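Subject: for your reference before the review

Hello V.,

The reviewers asked for a structural picture of the protein, and I figured it would be easier to keep everything in one thread rather than splitting it across files. Below is the amino acid sequence we used in the manuscript, unchanged from the supplementary table.
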Amino acid sequence: MLKLFILPICLGLALGFSGCSNSSSQTGTPVAQQSPLPEDPLPGRDGWEPAKACAHLSDKLKTGSYINEGENIFGCRSEAKRFGGGSPPNSIVYYVKGDPLRARQVGLVVSVNNLESANDAHRTLLEYSEALSLKALGVPLSPSAGSAISTGGTGKGRVDTTRIEVLRNNFSTGGSYELHFVITPRQ
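And here is what came back from the structure prediction:
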């Protein structure tokens, strides 16, 4: 709640609104010199700041802006990164979903279109999921989640109150499928 209170003060300063002060009180410590709030021991427990969530994998899968996608559902997603041979090739996408103030879910989807390179697709999802787990939660990917991804299977688990899922969606056209790695904090 304190962060939400400080933000309007800082925005007022940045926009030049009169009546805004660059200090916490007339005689107090300037906001810029105040000690930062203590860090949450488990990042993402209540979701994430949208811009930070969209940037979790910016070195691998850069997303667009966090926008209203309709019906007050907000999010951002990366372009599909294609890899491997075949037509169509396998691909991976990073996405974030939430409300206007908080990102409430982050995830990866790998589309396995070329079954001959399914193991490569699983390895790619595993690599990106390991990075996302560290960025979003501050903890390494669990061995059971890693095993589910590596085998193209499914699984569910928790980190504190945060749900971790590996889901599989088989396409009705035969053979091809999607494998999802999803992190959803408590609601």
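For the response letter, the relevant points are probably these. The chain has four helices and eight strands. Residues 1-41 have pLDDT under 50 and may be disordered.

Happy to draft the paragraph if you're swamped.

O.
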